[in-house]
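[09:14] KT: can someone run the structure on this one? pasting the chain below
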Amino acid sequence: MGALLAREPLRPYTSRWLCFGLLGKPRPSYLTECWRYPSTAFPPPASQALPEGAEQPDLLFLPMTDWHSRIQRTQHLALGLAAAGHRCFYLNPHLGFQFRRIYCRERGHRISTLAAGLYELHLRLPREPVVHHRMATSRECGILADALGRLMRAAGVKKLVQLVSLPFWLGVAVKLRREYGFPIVYDCHDLLSGFRNMRREVVAAEADLLECSDLALFSSQPLLDAKLAEFPSLRGKSLLVRNAAAGGYGALHGEAVPARSRSGPEKVIGYVGALDEWFDMAAVKSAALRQPDWKFVLIGRIENRAVLALKELPNVVLSGEAPHSELAAHLADFDVALIPFLVNELTVAANPIKLYEYLSFGLPVVSTRLPEVEMFGDLVYIAGGPEDFARKVEEAAGENDSLLRQRRADSVRGETWASRVRQIEEALASRV
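[09:31] RB: done, structure tokens below
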């Protein structure tokens, strides 16, 4: 950590002026998208005071990911809780890197309005740390806790729950609980040790976060089981809160899933999500080679450059990241949806959000062997390797069963983020 701290003072300069300046690399969209929302000084002046909260507690989200990079579990929960009447405050994890000017030129904090009752906090730290590279220092925890405390007082917060998604925030959360009595809920939605870029110091700190949390949420049964085996003291304060579908015919609507309108030899085989180290390129390549007349559309930001090798196949399209608002249009165009994950500790512990989204459209899903996918039984196709994956894609594409499509949509009709919010609200009312 010492070497990392020694290099960090240069990061604002090297990243902004070298990469985005001299080398001409464009700023990532999530660093500019956040400023398209109306914002004001932090805490806001009296003339721009936040609407008062209701009886239910406010929520402070201390997240793993940027709101604007990709809509994931934490964002869905924040949107759902805000819709249920809670004021929700989501802390941007870049901690200054998202600002156009560096800390020495502009030190103030800002607050943006993302939606009714949903606010994004832009707090600045001198070193602009990367939250998965190290833990926050004592000084940084003090700066953040002080700023958050001032905001909570200005916003008239009476009851607040901290929803923490990454151990980096541990020191901040403990300070806020000690000073204001705000309970800590740890939302454990991934196996941290499975990420190649998650530093050991952050992974190790998860034990302290689990120990001091008032309630721990887990996104999958394998993840919950693994943590209970490691930390038996969690048994009385753990809750399984799986992921869910945000939309689709089966999730939110009562009408039947429409039949496919497209005919002919070409099929569209699709994937939506990160193209990272856990993406099974061999499985997709095998399927694409066996069916050269079908189109394989991979939608998502490329996090692992090895995935670019798939561009050599003429029927594979790497579409890049797509806004979540366009997800329904893409899924409606798929004949088959894919979950081509390598089977490892990270993916075995995962509960893929995309599975719920796919099923809500009645789509046949081909997946590698993951426990949280297998629990859907004959509604999904489970493959045992690249060649088997290709065969299962062909089988799924040959489906002509409207009742099976409807069964898939029906299977996730109650698996919505609104239902997950109600589950969390009940837990907060009885346990926190």
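[09:33] KT: thanks! The mean pLDDT is 91.
[09:34] RB: yep, looked fine to me
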